[in-house]
Structure formats: structure tokens, C-alpha cells
Amino acid sequence: MLDIVGDSWFRCGLDFRVSSSAVMVVGFVGNEDFWVHFGGGGGLLSFSLFLVLHSGKGNKNAYKALIAAEYSGVQVKLVEDFQMGVSNKTPEFLKMNPIGKVPVLETPEGPLFESNAIARYVARSKADNPLYGASLMDYALIEQWIDFASLEIDANIRLWYGPRMGFAVHLPPAEEAAISALKRGLVALNTYLASNTYLVGHSVTLADIIMTCNLYMGFVRVMTKKFTSEFPHVERYFWTLVNQPNFKKILGDVKQTDSVPAVQSKKPAQTKEAAKPKPKDEPKKEEAPKPKAVEEEEEAPKPKPKNPLDLLPPSKMILDEWKRLYSNTKTNFREVAIKGFWDMYDPEGYSLWFCDYKYNDENTVSFVTLNKVGGFLQRMDLARKYAFGKMLIIGSEPPFKVKGLWLFRGQEIPQFVIDECYDMELYEWKKVDISDEAQKERVSQMIEDQEPFEGEALLDAKCFK
Prior knowledge:
This protein is an alpha+beta fold. The protein contains 16 helices and 15 strands.
């Protein structure tokens, strides 16, 4: 028999029988760890086979610990009936985390907050957990990618999503900066994942859990398919992970957002002072009239200059209709999409161009070549309203050839594209002569991703639409 003194927690793999002031060991319970809490009088206050997580059910930061628990065999229980804005404002919760943020993990050793720290604790609760790798270098790389997921991905998604939902003031320049920074992070991640299935090693680690949960917020809130299609290896990675059984048990079926949420406008609450009836206005002193020239300058801001392509005569070809046809055609592509393209094509309003990369002998590494083309397409985003493009990476062995086909509004390559996209000078450009049947057929083959193309296999084909 073991006497209990004071207020004590015990972690054990034993079964206990409790009297008013003592505990008797009556047997083992396999390898299960559980927590037993005794009060000052020795009585049993708590008996738990799990850790307790305080958070709402839809919190992606709570998902980190819950998924880690599934992989680790550690039992973490989500508190019931947690209400954000209510439960996290109680004195009991604020004692665990004074600033009221969620999630909070309640452990026998004390409360723990910050989601990455909680996920680490859960993973480290199991000795030699493969979620932390097999070596010191694995451990360091896992920590590296956790930091990257927090600073480059999660932080910028929050800066994009939060203001649109009214959590902060929406400032278009700040949003543009956040999206630009997010794209920079996704480009780097996409490059790495071109030759890696997971972030560290050949199986899921804690880095993958935290990265996927951070990406989850983006995919379901603000990152549409149009946005993520620029990062195909990130897409492949995300959908592979969220469909793993341990992820799916926590996340359920994940659906990517169809649109970016509109900015939520909030009317300021009327204060008591504002609600009081206003005294009659005193007669306003007459102000000296402004000089006419100054008045007109203030009232009539200068109009934003139009893109020269918007001043061209209307075209019978509606670019968005072609892009929809291309995206929606899943079968009989040659008969439906290719025929539809030539039916729509307006040689007076648009022009077609072939491009060939000047330095193909440098394309000796497949994922570097793919990333090079992906970066080019990302920088072409300024022309999305006026262009459609296909880029083919050709060859089964290095060096790989990069060839492209572009449809531009107007009869020349737009000057603003030449000025702003430095990649343009890395290619040889040749205008397509559609009266030449061979060139016309080559256009069709490139749109269709025909393989073999000009006698060679395709490594990949990328579309700008």
C-alpha cells in the first residue's frame, strides 16, 4: 500500500484501487500510460488515459497535435462544447494561457500553449518516435521545415485571409505584399518537392504534419485551384497527405475553396456620444472660394492610364471562353478543344508565337528545369488577361528542351510583357504563320500535349491560362 501525501500526479502503467487516503496496486494494465491525480486528502480527483486539448473542432492549429497523436499512439482528448470567445475567456482558461489563445494542452506537468510546441510535446511523448526522424540531421531538418511552414507559409496566409474576414484592417498594398511573399515560399517549396515525396526522409514526420495543417488553411480559405495550379508539386504533396488515413481521420474530406472571400466591411459601433442629439450647428463662416484650377484638380483625380491592349478594336475571340473550353474538355480533345480553338481564333485580334529556350544545354536536372519554367509562368501573371500559353519540357534524358506556344492579344508580343518579364529574352520568339499548314498543325499538337512531340517524349507540359 502506498500513502499519498499532498496534491500529487502519478504517471504509471499500473491499475490502482483507491481508498480515502491510500492507493493499493492490484495489477498491470498492459503498456498503457495514464495519469492519476490525488488531492491533499489522498482522494482520487482525476483518472485519465489521455491528454486534454482545449480548442474548437475546426481549428487547424489543434489538428497538428491531433494528427501527431494518431501517428504516435498518444491519446489526446478534445474538450467538449468549446466555444471560441467564451471558453477561452474564463478565469480557468486564462490561468493556463493569460492571452487567451488556443489551443492549450492540459498535461499533468502543467498547461502548454502554442500549437507547434504542443505538437512537439505529443510527438516526443513516445520514445524514439519516427515523427522526429532517425538522426540528429533529421531532427534539425524537421525543425527547419517547421520554421519554414510557420514563417513563410502560415504567416502570409493569415495576412491574406485575416483582413478579408474583418479580423484586421484590409489594406490592398499589404495584401499584395502578403500574396507575393506567400508565392515566394510556395515556389521554394514546389522546387524542393519536385524531387521529394516528404519534407524529411521517406515517411511522414512532424514537419509534414505542421506544413500540411498550415497549407490546409490556405487551400480551404483563399488559395483557389487557379492559384495553386502554379505549384503542382505542392498540390500533389498536399492532396497526398490529407488523404492519408491518420490525416483524414482528423480533417475529414478536404475541399478546396472555389473563390477568395470578399472583403468584410464593418460599420463602427455607434458610441454613446454619437447617439446623443447634436446641437444645432452654428452658422458656418464663409470660406474664401478656392481658385477654380485648384478646385478642379482636387475633385477630378487623374484617370488611371489604360493598357494599350484595352484600346484595340473588339475581337470576336473571347479569351475566357477559350480557356473554359480548354479546362473543361476531358475527352476527344482534338475533336472538341482543338477544333473549338480554330473556330474561335481571330487572326486580326490575336497572334500566335512559338518560343524556344536559348540555353537548353544547361537543362541537365529535371526538377530544376521544371522549376525554371514554373517561375517563368508565375512572372507572366501580369499578362493573364491578355494571353494563353503552353510550355513543353521535352526529352526522356537530359539535357531537356523547353519549347512554348503563346497566344497574345494584338499582332505583337505586348511591350509591357517584354519590359516586365525578364524571362522573355531567354527565348527565341517566332510568329506563327497560320497559312502554313505545318505550323498550324504544330500549334494544335502543342495545345494538345501530343506525345511524342517532334519524335521525343514529354517530361512535362505546363499551361498558362
